[in-house]
Design goal:
The protein has twelve helices and seven strands. By secondary structure, it is α/β, with parallel strands linked by helices. The chain has one domain (10-258): Rossmann fold, CATH 3.40.50.150.
Length: 259
Amino acid sequence: MQRSTAKDGNEDVRRYWNQEACGTARPIVGEVPELSREWFERIEAYRYELEPFIHSVAQFTRHHGQRLLEVGVGAGTDHLQWARAGLECHGVDLTERAIEVTRARLALYGLTSHLQRIDAEILPFPDQSFDLVYSWGVIHHAEHPERIIAEIRRVLKPNGRFIGMLYGRHSLVALKLWVKYGLLRARPDRTLADVVAHHMESPGTKAYTIHEVRELYAQFSQVTATPMMTPYDRLRLPAWLTQIVPARFGWFICIQAVK
């Protein structure tokens, strides 16, 4: 997990994720041929085994027939579910790798999407273009997440919905990072935000409080921010401890916002 601090903003983030689309690491896919059906099925099985709640949050089939934009398609796992559910799919990602992988994934199932490699801080769509915008665990990697959220609101139709997830700063994951890189290195002065930015995935990763999430989405008419305990919070901790920790200390903050 250890990463250096961002110096070049989104270009550093792009370089990091362009090396390997999220969720496609060798321990997950093994030795099967890249971009094969089995390769994709291993990625999907791993994702939904660790994060089965994605289905209850996204409710893919509920949005049949709607026009969808996914910000940050990654390996295309969720994007495939949207396409299967009969939405008109559009997807953007900061990296060429994610677009390549997602396009190949959909093609295996005879499905298509309008995919573009762009920086989501400036979306190439007219105002009020989409019924639904989805982004799971992506926006917090950007240099200016608030710009992406403003763009999302702009391209949503009136009463359009955003569904997504951001990392939570007051979480067991962030606390474990602080213990490892702060307390045990005689740097207890380091903040949770600092250790997340330096040691979680791509450079400059952000994590938020519930209040900060609501502030980010303050221009929306309705916002629900629900923290969720994850396997990443429970990792290497005794079961008895994680069972008594309230969900508000979970790593994921699931968001529903209506324009």
